[in-house]
Amino acid sequence: MSQVSLRRKKFNLFDTLNILFMIVLMIVTLYPFVNMIAVSLNNANDTVRGGIYLWPRMWTLDNYKYVLNEATIFHATMISVLRTVIGTLVSVFCTAMLAYTVSRQDYVLRKFVTLAFVLTMYFSGGLIPGYLLIRELGLTNSFWVYILPGIIGVFNMIIIRSFIEGLPDGVLESAKIDGAGDFTTFVRIVLPLTVPVLATVSLFVAVGQWNSWFDVFLYNSSNIDLSTLQYELQKILQTSNTAASAQNAADAFAGAQGGQAVVTPTALRATMTIVASLPIICVYPFLQKYFVKGLTLGGVKG
């Protein structure tokens, strides 16, 4: 009995420490986001005083009204939504086609093609050659520069290929016996069976597309019509890094009432961060079950 009691005490100690560690980790993870929400919902002029942590001191929606009424922000949001939706659909479909191709045992060049793509994960031509290539292809100042260069994700391809290789061979063979070609088999058989892993990969790609801003800076910074929400946020963050720039921005946002600033850089930065993060946060709960299932099955079958 004493040994059993000792084991129970050890397990209880481990569970207690584990729970405490997870609580601390949760607090550390959530605090910056909660603080951003509090700042975004607080009066901008009052925020300058500091002391805003978890709860707004002077509630207001003026920060969000300003951001949502800005034509530039609204247009940038639409571009971000378009590149996320189109980029995710095109990338996942093309990556899945490649994964299905290299998963077939009867494909002679499957090992060579797989190696060629995997090497791109370790070696890159560099920033300048990449820019020159994009320019020579005529993709600068174009919406398609957001879609075509990253149309194939090698890591995602490996995940999907591992999942497809775990599918029953009889299902694919029966489709061929019925006279279905490779593309028909892929669209009607493989895609429906790989929904969990495709949902996982879609989440990866969508988050990457939504958060991307550096490609906008490189290729479309001179074209305001192709600016994205994340790039606009980056410009705001860069502007508010120095005290002088922050003061200039505060003067620019001055309202008509008494010449006082209606929206300060600090409040605008917090509001833009929440606006940029909210769509992904809203979508994730609907894909969570596919996300966990897809990663688990893909890892086991790989």
Description:
By secondary structure, this protein is mainly alpha-helical. The protein has one domain: MetI-like (MetI-like fold), CATH 1.10.3720. Helix content is 72%, strand content 0%. It has helices at residues 2-40, 44-47, 62-69, 71-103, 110-119, 127-136, 154-165, 169-177, 182-193, 195-211, 214-219, 229-239, 243-252, 265-301. Helix 7 (154-165) packs parallel to helix 14 (265-301). The longest helix is centred in the N-terminal third of the chain and has 39 residues, at 2-40. Residues 242-248, 254-261 and 298-302 have low confidence and may be disordered. Keywords: Cell membrane, Membrane, Transmembrane, Transmembrane helix, Transport. Residues 77-280 form the ABC transmembrane type-1 domain. It comes from Paenibacillus abyssi. It is found in: Cell membrane.
Order of helices and strands: HHHHHHHHHHHHHH
Name the poorly predicted regions: 242-248, 254-261, 298-302
CATH class: Mainly Alpha
Mean pLDDT over the full residue set: 81
Looking at the overall shape, the CATH architecture is Orthogonal Bundle
Helix/strand class: mainly alpha
InterPro entries: MetI-like, MetI-like_sf
Membrane topology: Multi-pass membrane protein
Transmembrane segments: 12-34, 73-100, 112-131, 143-164, 185-207, 267-287
Protein name: Sugar ABC transporter permease
